[in-house]
Fold:
Amino acid sequence: MILRREFLLSALTLAGGILFPGANLFGKSPYPHFFFSQIRYRGGSWDTNPHFVEAIVEELEMRTSIDASRERRLMDLSDPDLFFSPFLFMAGNYEFEPFSPQERESLRRYLTFGGFFFAEDTLGAKGYGFDRALRAELKKVFPHQDLKRLPLDHPVYRSFYLINHIGGRQLVSPYFEGITLDHWTPVIYSQNDLSGAWSRDKLGKWIHECPPGGETQRSLAFKAGINMIVYSLTWDYKRDLVHHPFIKKRLSP
Amino acid sequence: MSLKEITLSPILPIWLIVILLALSIAVLILLSPRLRKRVGPHRVLWISCLRLSAFFLLIGFFLNPTSTERVEKKTSPSLALFVDTSPTMGLPVKDGGISRLAEAGGLLLKGKPPLLKALADRFEVQVYGLGESLRPLEAGEILQLKAGGRKGDLTGALEKMSSRNVLPVLLSDGKVEWKGKGISPLPLFTIPVGDPGEYQDIWIHAVKAPSIAFRGREVVVEAVVKNHGYRQATLPVSLKDGDKLLAAQSIRIPTSPAEIPLSFSFTLEETGQHHLSLSIPPQAGEITPLNNTFPFSLRVVKDKIRILMVSGTPSLNYRYMRMAFKSDQSIDLLSFVILRTPTDVLNVPLQEQSLIPFPVETLFSKELRHFDLLIFDNFPYHLYIKPAYLEEVRAFVKAGGGLALIGGPNLLDEGKYSGTPLEEVLPIEAAGKGDYQREVPLKARLTRAGRSHPITGLEATEKENVNLWREMPPLDGSNRVRVKTSATILLESGDGIPHPILAVERYGQGRVFVLATDYSWKWYMGMIARGRSHYAYYRFMERAVRWLTKDPGLDPIQIILPEEAVRIGQRKEIRVRVRPEEDSPEMKRVIQFSVFDPQGMKVGAEMKPAGSSGESTASFIPEKAGNYKLKVENPGGSVEESVAIYEPIEERDGLPEHERLMKIAESTGGKFLSPQEDLLQEIIRAAEKRESRYVEERAIPLWSHFSWLALVLTLLSAEWYLRRRWGLI
Structure:
């Protein structure tokens, strides 16, 4: 199913491409500031939503000033380029093999010094499979920190959209969990399969339905994704005092 | 002469003299039997006695008997007339009258006959000017004396005279240095000058103010106003910063004398040295208006460095800069990130988005001056800021603000700075599109200027610094910019044909910095990836901010003032440190030091190299109270500093202290002489009491006296004569 908006945009883009062949009407930036890096890990299934990038990047570029790449960089945790990833993504359904000590140290170092990591259990089974394995690994990476539910005043709920719950392909938890170090939350975790909600095939058709909320739930997944991306690039910008009166006013009933 | 006046000083050891005496007696005893065979016992006794007496006398000479004569004599003291030349002696005795110093001169040189001449006829007289030290004066110099310098050191003067038979007489208003009772071995006679009854004055007695204040924060200054001779008066007191009035208030003077405390609260927005003063306008009949103003200095520093950062888009470059700034407690960051461009489409109502309006007008027309540094981070200004506001930015930099442009595709906003007021401010050519490229990663390399520049000098030594920059990770993107000839390139690309990466320039009072890359964050994460720390990136950002905001600690020329206050007439030493910042370091170490007094007149100053390299010691002697301006120049620029020289608090009150003179005189056993008395007779009487008697002693060695030699010869002759008469020879 293609939305009317998408059809119109495609038509306009096509027309623009003909009229202004040199123009960047696809919104693709030659110099993107954002791209996804996805971890290939051993065991389990690391690539549960191989087509999640296109739609979320398109949405990101349409709604925000961020220039993003539609490229998805796949890497192991031992890859030195890990440290230059603005957004490290990891997803899966099942239990995976434990990280090696070097991988854990690399991840710990990346996250401690400013990296950002979004993990999601696309199966959505609490205490089982990917969820259990990830929580165990994170405990080994940060022995003194726990994944905790992020409060509603966390910048990730306010970095672009003002949201108070998150969507996804499924609705396991309407909130993000995270590990916060000082004022920075380098680890955000969800079991709602946001990337499943973002996934679209080459014809522009959504790959998954989003029960029970349907398109509203998908829309919330996009908003949550954009907020996470903006958060990964701006840190706690929305905590600055200058934003307070506006956000307070908009959130007041 | 009595035996008590004869002293013995043996020229031989006593034991030897005793042996000689014993031998003499033994010889006499041995010879007496032979004599007795030839003459009767009476004659033996006579000859033996004569011989013994002669021996005793001869041996007695070895004891060196000396007679001491004592003669009692009298002498009159000489007179030491101290004329006080302390600063208050320059004040008039009464409104419009002669000075106290002139009054003192009159007391000595006028009258019939003049006191000085009359005294000189009877005594040995020496007149001294009593300042910080004693200065002997000729009679003709007395009326030319000038008051000034430091307070007269009476204690030191009396100590200097203490070994002589001197009668010290002081002519003073009582404002002398005196360390109290029991110091002087000489009785001091004091003659007062000045008239406490005629003294009318209002002055700022004391000011209690911090030496350092924070910009924009309240400062409280407390002061005490004192008065003599005025009552039931209302006076305005004003607090000024240079010539600018900061605050004013009225005080009520109820009685005379009175002490009125007051306080002022104010804030200062400009950092640097402020020359403040509290002042009261001169009043009718006031003896001196000089103490109506109290100058003091206040250094205003930034409590926080205020940065306004505008980023064209969320990016890692923004986030890592934000992390660096937020980690520095001295930085107050206000940032705006353009989250949505005018062409982006919003799919939700306002209530569901966190975007806030970018308050361009408020920021650039009103608030900009409250910031120390403006950063445009890959910011396409033309979409958000009216070109007219660029004039505000230019004025901001010219007035001393910092401007940083961070690279990226929008560094030069596709040439839109060309023809704007910022074109002349930037260290790079504004024309062109900024030519942003992401090709192969390129290394940043220090230029010669960059090796020692505060921004890029991250390590203690040049060698360590060059090595650190060699280790810095390469950058993935950069702008190909053209740098103006007036700018300084600190970093350039290290591969291929070098192109500038970091260029700096001064504009007006401010500083400008262009970092032609949006990948400086790789200097952070690249080092982390290698297992190193993020020190270099944080240090680079911290030093860039400090340089752009003119942190004095990074100035190539630094004037280091001493902590302690300096009094008038005392040499003030200042350390000057020059660090080569750009090319030709040797030439830039040639410096010139100038000092200007409170009236703007150049005064003598010295400068000599200090121990450490690039450091010198400069000095000058302030002759008056007020703010002195210090200027250090070298071909690379100049730095100005100022220093306040305070008049000592005790010298602000010019009231003659005749009672103090009385107490000083009493404490030394001297006398307070009123000018109404017959000073000549009083001094003569005092001198008579000081006439000293002494005993002159003379020592006469007896053995050298002829009579004693004659006596010995007589005794020996008599013995020879008797022996001859009695047929023993």
